[in-house]
Design goal:
Elements (H helix, E strand, L loop, with lengths): L6 E4 L2 E4 L4 H5 L11 E5 L7 H7 L6 E3 H12 L14 E3 L8 H16 L7 E3 H12 L17 H14 L2 E2 L5 E2 L2 H24 L6 H19 L15 E3 L6 H19 L6 E3 H19 L11 H8 L3 H14 L2 H24 L20 E5 L2 E3 L2 E3 L3 H8 L5 E9 L4 E9 L12 E6 L4 E10 L5 H44 L12 H31 L2 H28 L3 H7 L3 E2 L7 H7 E3 L17 H23 L3 H9 L3 H6 L1
Antiparallel strand pairs: 1-2, 3-4, 3-18, 5-6, 7-8, 9-10, 11-12, 11-16, 12-19, 13-15, 14-15, 14-17, 16-17
């Protein structure tokens, strides 16, 4: 029979509910299409790092569904039920372990062993501090089960010295205690290199064709080999029969000064001993071939050099270490003694695994199987990195960003207003980058280069500078005023253009007048009389314009006077709605479509379900500044023309009141007009 799952709905997002241990134990039966996340990156998370390492079994930096289920199965095999996970404590009661399974009994024995070492035999529970304390003591021991031994692992001075020499020659391996040591692979490599190096040195006696002088002869020969080879190699265009078929190479007279020293050394150390002559001054092609053939075995021996890593120890020291194989056996026995405690260390790891799962696994599941923590302000999500304070607001949704360009390309699909912010702490030289989501307020005052302060989850403050803004509407209020802002901007732009053009024309006219005056002749010509027709047409045009405006105002006033007040107000409301309602409706749909899953996907998560959020929830993600309850605001002493604002308000109020009274016929003038006006019937009779 399938498990009876329960679901919750928050901000139109339906997700599975995890309330107790039975829900967690049955996760293997839950269709993966209902999981909120299928894969999560371990980078940039606000979560216990050691628990992430335990969950990431393949150490690839990602946690997938099979790894989460493996952790659940591991717990199911050792505990009676998994209800203890929801206590979210770094503590496990011994009574929770299942003594009916081999795994449960083994873990219980490990728990009791740790408590016994800590002199807590009567304790009924084990804490993470107990385990980590025992682990620290265990890791500091000479043998700690990691297969790495250090010079401190033995009291035999000779063995300790060999361990140190192996670490120096082959490279050290860190022991759990933190000291440098060696493992079996390093030991095997050392003894193999030592044996190979000794065999190579023994073969060198046969290759030393000149005895003790061979090394110096080969060194002098190698310094000039390529140059002399080139000299004795016939050029491609040499005739078949040359005038001097057996050229000789002088080694002293006429030699380039740059090569003279090397040639003299070659003559003394190599050519002379090989040819059996003292003071060789030149060699022929045959002499050169004989020298090369004599020194070739030594060159081949050098090329076959083995065990270079241990050469610095010297052949005599290496021979002493390898003698009888006793030292190798002692080192291997030391490593095996350490490995014998691997099972005990594994039991400590199991205890730590159980306690870290007890403290953190429930929170991980509430950020993976579902995203309940996003909708719970009391439990921050694992991707929560801190809060950004900017523009009088606190932005709670801040995500870690590895690369802005790649992140922004995907995060824009979220339909959210995003701020990419560069963080820095000059005191420590640290630098980071985050993506902050703006979900309430307005975006008009957010721009690239604006400064803020970021507080991370550890309470450290960072200097914050906005590097990029991905614009999107964040509230219905902003959407309501957006058309009017555009209208005001358009009118303002047109007014500025008109005034600017008039100003430019006036400046140009004045400039032309000044230039004309400067260039005018002594006897100015008579100015033509004004054109009466042009003047009349200009005045007529102005009159027509004023007439149109007046007629329009008159028509509007006539309509308003004949229309009831409620219809006038309704018409004004209709105009406002006609302009703002489309923007508000479109914004409402856009705000409902905002999806945090796209931002997580940009950070490397494989989010399987949409993570939408409501407008009400958005206000918890972005909190504006609020005045404290009961506070009083002192009057601004620098406020100017306050009486003008009051007078304008009074005039406006009086005008509105007069208009309302006039419409209702409450004014005395309205009543006198009614008395003076003839009755409609009398007018009809006449």
């Amino acid at each position: 029979m399938s498990y009876n799952w329960k679901f919750f709905k928050s901000a139109r997002c339906v997700q599975v509910k995890l309330e107790n241990g039975a829900d967690v134990a049955a996760l293997g039966e839950l269709d993966q299409k209902l999981w909120t996340v299928l894969s999560a990156s371990t980078e940039g998370l606000r979560f216990d790092a050691e628990t992430l390492k335990l969950l990431d079994t393949d150490k690839d930096g990602r946690i997938r569904v099979p790894e989460v289920l493996a952790a659940v199965d591991w717990l199911k095999a050792r505990f009676k039920n998994l209800d203890f996970l929801f206590a979210r404590k770094e503590e496990i009661a011994l009574a929770d372990l299942n003594e009916e399974t081999d795994e449960g009994r083994a873990l219980l024995a490990s728990f009791r062993n740790i408590l016994s070492r800590a002199a807590k035999n009567d304790a009924t529970s084990l804490t993470l501090a107990d385990v980590t304390g025992t682990t620290a003591i265990f890791n500091g021991q000479p043998f700690n089960g990691d297969g790495v031994v250090t010079p401190k692992s033995t009291s035999d001075a000779q063995v300790a010295d060999v361990v140190a020499k192996i670490a120096a020659a082959e490279g050290a391996v860190k022991d759990r205690s933190g000291d440098d040591g060696i493992d079996q692979a390093k030991a095997d490599a050392f003894f193999a290199d030592a044996a190979a190096y000794l065999d190579w040195t023994k073969a060198g006696a046969a290759a030393a064709t000149l005895g003790d002088r061979t090394a110096a002869a080969y060194a002098a020969f190698s310094a000039v080999e390529a140059t002399i080879d080139a000299y004795f190699t016939p050029p491609a265009d040499l005739p078949l029969v040359a005038e001097d078929p057996t050229p000789s190479l002088p080694l002293t007279a006429g030699v380039n000064p740059l090569w003279l020293g090397k040639f003299r050394a070659f003559a003394a150390d190599a050519a002379g001993p090989v040819l059996g002559q003292e003071g060789v001054e030149s060699i022929s092609r045959d002499d050169w071939a004989a020298i090369k053939a004599r020194l070739a075995p030594y060159g081949a021996w050098l090329a076959s050099k083995a065990g270079a890593a241990v050469e610095s120890l010297g052949a005599d020291a290496l021979a002493a270490i390898l003698k009888d194989g006793k030292m190798q056996a002692a080192v291997n026995a030391l490593i095996q003694s350490d490995l014998a405690l691997a099972d005990e260390y594994g039991r400590l790891v199991d205890c730590e695994r159980a306690l870290r799962y007890a403290a953190h696994l429930a929170d991980w599941l509430c950020n993976y199987v579902n995203q309940a923590n996003i909708y719970d302000p009391q439990r921050p999500s694992v991707f929560h990195t801190g809060e950004l304070f900017i523009d009088g607001r606190a932005l709670r949704l801040c995500f870690f960003v590895a690369a802005e360009g790649a992140h922004a390309a995907l995060a824009g699909k979220s339909k959210c207003c995003l701020l990419y912010v560069k963080l820095s702490r000059k005191a420590t030289g640290e630098a980071r980058e985050i993506c902050a989501v703006v979900t309430a307020g307005s975006t008009a005052s957010l721009y690239v280069g604006r400064n803020g302060v970021f507080y991370d989850c550890d309470g450290k403050d960072w200097d914050a500078v906005v590097a990029k803004v991905v614009e999107a509407q964040v509230s219905l209020r902003e959407a309501f005023w957006a058309p009017w802002a555009k209208i005001a901007t358009t009118i303002g732009d047109q007014c500025r253009k008109f005034l600017s053009s008039r100003q430019d024309a006036a400046v140009a006219k004045v400039s032309d007048g000044v230039n004309a005056a400067a260039a005018a002749p002594a006897a100015p010509a008579a100015q033509p009389a004004p054109n009466g027709t042009a003047l009349a047409s200009s005045v007529a045009a102005i009159g027509i314009g004023v007439g149109f405006v007046g007629a329009a105002c008159g028509s509007l006033l006539s309509i308003l006077t004949k229309t009831p007040l409620w219809q006038t107000l309704l018409g004004v409301a209709a105009i406002i709605l006609l302009v703002s309602l489309p923007s508000v409706v479109l914004a409402w749909f856009r705000l409902r479509a905002r999806d945090l899953g796209a931002i997580l996907n940009a950070g490397g998560w494989a989010v399987n379900r949409p993570l939408t959020f409501s407008i009400g929830l958005a206000r918890t993600f972005t909190r504006p500044a609020k005045m404290p309850v009961g506070c009083a605001v002192a009057r601004d002493p620098y406020a100017s023309h306050g009486w003008l604002k009051l007078l304008a308000a009074l005039v406006l109020a009086a005008g509105i009141a007069a208009g309302v009274c006039w419409k209702l016929g409450c004014l005395p003038c309205c009543k006198s007009c009614e008395k003076a006006a003839p009755a409609p019937a009398a007018e009809a009779a006449k």
